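Z., the sequence and structure:
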Amino acid sequence: MAAAEPTLDPPTEAAPDLAPAPAQPEPILDVAGVSLRFGGVRALTDVSFAVRQGEIFSIIGPNGAGKTSMLNCISGRYRPTEGRIRFDGRDITRLRTSRRAAIGIGRTFQNLALFGHMSVLDNIVVGRHHLLRHGFLSGMLYWWGGAQREEIEHRHAVEEIIDFLEIQHVRKEMAGTLSYGLRKRVELARAVALRPKLILLDEPMAGMNLEEKEDMARFIVDLNVEWGMTVLMIEHDMGVVMDISHRVMVLDFGRRLAEGAPEAVLADPHVRRAYLGEVDEEAPALEAAGA
């Protein structure tokens, strides 16, 4: 599905209550001088930023700005051509995707990546495979209850997520038969099943109607406030970004254009010109004056 065009919808009237952003916490994610090239094409150029523990940090920018490429570098799908990525104090620049998931990085995708032939319940269970502890020894001791206790523990965790995301009514349905909005919710559930410290959300509101967007925004804020997850989100809907983000970074042609509080970033004339195509009204006057 094509990425949504940016919108300037006003914030919803009943915006979710945000957790207060910590004053000066240590960054849980530190991206330093990351560049990414595909042959002669530069997807990212010398991008640096940090995501603080316990905040909702959004990356915005026009289509093709490099937003998903940055998430792919963080999650391990792409390896940066240059630069360094640190997570929770550890250099993960060359770490495999599976290892990044194991140490606490979860993600959703712009294009749904569910197992359509599996039930909602089974899709969520798959998200917990990195947390399984049983191996050869526990298999031998199965009859002493170790494996059964682990199975009960994981099933309880999955049911908690199902209740939290309000998908009890479809828990036994095949994921491929659900509406688009529900499938996006199931994919979020699968990412949450890992209980990540940092969750990467690639356009979680794309293709949703207003009611579905409000529900998803509420779930994201509750994950941040109640479950203590740090959120790094790509989103085109500026109403959502303004409502739930503590800080925002703007990418344009693979370069960082601005970073800061949502209101300040979106008021920046350079951001509005690059992201929304607005004309700088002062430019003709400056040119006429020889500036």
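The longest strand covers residues 27-38. The longest helix spans residues 146-164.

Let me know what you think.
H.
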